[in-house]
Amino acid sequence: MMGDLVPDSLWERVEPLLPPRPPRRHQHPGRRPAHDRAALTGIVFVLKTGLGWNQLPQDLFGVSGVTCWRRMRNWTEAGVWPAVHEMLLAELRAAGALDLDWCAVDGSHVRALKRGDHVGPSPVDRGRPGSKHHLIVEANGIPLPVGLTGGNRNDVTQLLPLVDSIPPIRGLRGRPRRKPRELFADRGYDHDKYRRLLRARGITPRIARRGVAHGSGLGRHRWVVERGLAWLHSYKRLRTRWERRADLHLGLLQLACALICHRRLTAL
Fold it and tell me: CB-hemisphere CA count at 13 Å for 239?
């Protein structure tokens, strides 16, 4: 089970990025802490299955769900998941598996069953509390940055924050890539102000216009971001937001992006 969820190739990349735990006391050291790899396995299991943290079978993983949640919290606060994601993106680029000439952006609603930050009435779910996942993918659908907002936020408000948060992707000689040449988006992003701001960043906007009949051909490119969101939501814990803390739900999103990149890398 551990080897399937956290293979050696993934663990070798994650382990050096984990923050060191405080040293044990000499007197009354207490129980030996659970191994980090076991905790990561439990976290990935929860992410994939959608199981509650308190439902994690301790006898199967050798670690409790509470411990996994605490490690998830600590590693999220330490910025582990974006670092793993950025490392894997660099490896994919070095392998020639990233096409950064053009990207696509979109958002997706999920229901939020607990209150917290970045929760709002969803206009597509009868005003029920919800959140939005915002995603930019490269031309093959590999996720780049991911964002989280309340369900009532307009997609276009997150366009520039997403573009500006594309990590510096290394892997080849020269400067790291931080932006595509073209960006594709649907009619939800149809604002001339944002077209100007994208051009000011050296990015050509390819955004569908409202009131114009379909047939522009932009859908031949935009479908990759829909597939990218489907890849994210194949991790059942992300289909509904259960985490009250927005940073922890965003951490799970970032971990899922890293897992998608690792899966693509191992398939090469």
Answer: 11
Among all chains, which residue has been given the structure tokens 């590999």?
A: 142
| DSSP annotation string for 24-68 | PPSSS--SPPPPHHHHHHHHHHHHHH---GGGS-HHHHSS-HHHH
Nearest alpha carbon to residue 233 among 122, 104, 146: 146
Reported pTM: 0.92
Tell me, what DSSP letter sits at residue 20? P
pLDDT in tens, 82-95: 999 999 999 999 99
Q: Are 11 and 40 in contact (CB under 8 A)?
A: yes
* CA-wise closest residue to 2 among 60, 84, 55: 60
Q: Using one digit for the tens of pLDDT, what is the confidence trace for 77-124?
A: 999 999 999 999 999 999 999 999 999 999 999 999 888 899 999 888
